[in-house]
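Wed. Picked up where I left off yesterday with DUF2524 family protein. The coffee machine is broken again, so keeping this brief.
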Amino acid sequence: MAEYNGNFQEALEQLELAKKSMLDAQGYNDPQHFQRADQQIKYAQQLMNTTRPVTEDEKKLLIRSQDMLRQLEEIDQSIQ
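Structure written out below (tokens, as returned):
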């Protein structure tokens, strides 16, 4: 993975954790895993809202990341 500014990098890493948590939650089908995924998604959203991309690559990646986050939020909402 390329190196990005610190806040942006943290947001990307959190998004990956949220994605993994959602996949785990679906696999285990248990409330604790879904709660963890929900928390990871909310934290990723918070970081995405506060990060400011610097380069054009970061701006493009942020748009794709926000789309992925929306998909995770939709899955999370459909499960609840």
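Quick read: The radius of gyration is 13 Å.
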